[in-house]
Amino acid sequence: xxxxxxxxxxxxxxxxxxxxIKLTPVDTFFFGGExxxxxxxxxxxxxxxxxxxxxxxxxxxxxxxxxxxxKNPTVFESNKIIDKRKAAEIIGPSSFDYNTPPDNxxxxxxxxxLYFQYNDQSYFYAPLDIEFEMEKFQLKKVKxxxxxxxxxxxxxxNICQYLISGSGKTVKLSDIISDVPHVGNEKAEKGISKxxxxxxxxxxxxxxxxxxxxxxxxxxxxxxxxVIDTDDFFIPFGGEKSFFKMEVKKQPPASFSLFxxxxxxxxxxxxxxxxxxxxxxxxxxxxxxxxxxxxxxIQSKVEETKKYSxxxxxxxxxxxxxxxxxLLQRGSxxxxxxxxxxxxxxxLIEANDKEHCxxxxxxxxxxx
Length: 368
Description:
- By secondary structure, this protein is of the alpha+beta class.
- Helices cover 18% and strands 36% of the residues.
- The strands form 8 sheets. Strands 1, 7, 8, 9, 13, 14, 17, 18 and 19 form a 9-stranded antiparallel sheet that branches. The chain has a 4-stranded antiparallel sheet with strand order 21-27-20-28, with helices on one face. Strands 4-16-15 form a 3-stranded mixed sheet.
- Strand 5 (76-77) and strand 6 form a beta hairpin.
- The two termini are 42 Å apart.
């Protein structure tokens, strides 16, 4: 019996593998930011839209589901699902839906939070207050041997998002990702006036990544999904059909831990990924250095969705958009008077979370 039990455990372990997935942009890219707004029940062009600095976890899930379909040509051909039953087994019955979780994501058992890589060195999102020292719940910025108190009202002028390596080396996110403005217009339609045509012009800020850098994430995928170790090719990713070089390699997942030089004498919770939280979460903290990020995702169902080329305005078999949420942005850090209060808030975050959020890399936190 013992030998059989051990064999069953080994079989289960051997059917899962972690894959390191590296995404290098070929040119400019565009993530999030809505080119259309809803007005009187119709989708209209938004004049100015700006790409997010990074893809959301749902975007990574969408990429991985598409990749697995491409790796199964008997299921997916000419960008169409030809065997829905097998497709659901591989990628799950539907995309991410916060309010109506799917039973599973098929062969995708988990996705880790997004991070970066430069010359094979991993970089993670640093705490937003990394440039500050803390003295009894007061943050102080040290510059030219002078200390300046952190002022929450001036938050966006004195807080920068940094990335940090395992060795403690830091780099500003804005130093590796820059704006690239574009001006465009919607496809002209017959029978519309000159004024209507002019209203369809829009401006958007795409992004460009500094040479040598790339996005990365880890994914645990069950056997039989069609993943090929060390496979790499070019794949559309994000908005505007941006192309990325995608490299897939079987290896242990990357891990993030805070460096010793980040000295704090009070308990805290650090958001390693963007987090779904209650709107009043901050009232339970003694000090918080945080930002929020607007989030909504494109939704589809294997059994029902027929058109993947556009958003639905009428509820027919096209892609649809979820409602909008405000997530606590990765790098946000919450401080507490004692460990008991910290653990109470940790429970609140976990109580508000849903298992499928953590499965694809949301609501990952670090406590100390």
